[in-house]
Amino acid sequence: MNTDLNHNPQLEALTQTFKALSEPVRLRIVHLLLQRDNLCVCDLTEVLALNQSTVSRHLATLKNANLVRAWRESTWMHYAIQPDTLNLLQLDPMLKLLGAILADDLAQLIAYEQQPRKCQLPATE
Description:
By secondary structure, this protein is mainly alpha-helical.
């Protein structure tokens, strides 16, 4: 048995990816991020009806697994899928299944986007 394979960095990274995706809230977040270029934490809290600390904790797990990237705009953190994430896994079948299961989340996001976003800065003149 090749025990060196158990300590292979690529295998470790892939293991962390699957661990990060093994929680329903994180799958919901990934699904929504795949639908948009990026989303603010405030967007996700509203759409998923979860508090900010819960969403941030799940986003931190996804970020630590290198699945999402983050940046600050004013006081709000924004997140997007890492470009390599889609290359890491062949996600098409899983994304179709997620799309069917989580259609309500996407509908909620579309409805939410019809209103002013909490993270939008006031227009300056």
